[in-house]
DNA sequence: AACTATACGGAGACACCCTCCGGATCTACA
DNA sequence: TGTAGATCCGGAGGGTGTCTCCGTATAGTT
């Protein structure tokens, strides 16, 4: 890669990060290029579409979330709580970019953002595995599902800013469902089989 | 309302329904107008934005979902199962329009689609109330939250078409969390308080 | 210094959104 | 039935944003 190309690449990612934070992930790409002192053509050469750029920005920040998962693994925290806390951190992070949750979920971006997704999966997967080994989380729960759930709830919360506690309320529903149920207690679990 | 205006209004809704089913809720409004044999200006006069049109289309189909809730209320089904089954019906319906779930969640459309939302809330609210009276669903669960959760999960499922069972898996997590937990069983609920 | 692979820039085609207003069309009333 | 005028129609046009293409410029090499 030529030196000038590398320079432009870096400036674009830098500028994109700012723009995405300020204007959300739908910030105009032409503005990003202009602020980076670069032509729109250059932007598109480095990043064929919006998702590529988003992926590059996001990837720089992922190390932090991965690091958190390692810490939670090392610390003596309750395995199930560790998983849930980590998912909350993922949620908090994605909140800093309006629209990021939507972008990650977007099918179109599936290919482009895969590198980010697999990093998240491997970090979270380890935490989940430990919790499942300890019997603290249902064994049929998958890390991919948890991440998808988390981003879906972030999105719901983002679209309902007038309800501040929404994410936590929804997450708590799902969180309770993750835990293995005690052996059926008469009455309380009536009808449960029909729902499964 | 003048007769020709009414005629155009109806044709637009009709045509929009088809377009939304075929091309998703982001179908080009100009195409809808053209297919309805009407100018784009006419479309915008009747429906100031995409959400108004979506609302009109959606509203025609809501009676069915409301009807279902009445049936579930009348039938002797388990109250909690009835709520969950109804939410599934809502989910199935919204699946017929790619993007509807996103549109309903969208903040911009909040005003425009309110009439649909309140119909859903009142139908679901009655079912939920009965289940909570019967002690079959946690009393702190709100119908607004359940609908938001449902649409969030529909959206997640819609964006991951390669995983057919996703919606059901995610829903089952949340569904389990809705049920009141039996009095703490030693060991299994360790760490629960931290998550609430 | 000359050469070539690589990268740049931005004009322009495209798609969609939404507005505006001159002209066409209904309807009520005589 | 004829007409006045309130109502409605249509689509050109301006705006925004995406993405492509290719003539020009430049870094790196010999």
From TrEMBL, chains A, B:
PROSITE patterns: HTH_TETR_2 (PS50977). The keyword Isomerase does not apply. It holds the Pfam family TetR_N. Residues 28-47 bind DNA. It comes from the Bacteria. Residues 6-65 form the HTH tetR-type domain. Keywords: DNA-binding, Transcription, Transcription regulation. This is TetR family transcriptional regulator. The lineage of its organism: Bacteria, Bacillati, Actinomycetota, Actinomycetes, Kitasatosporales.
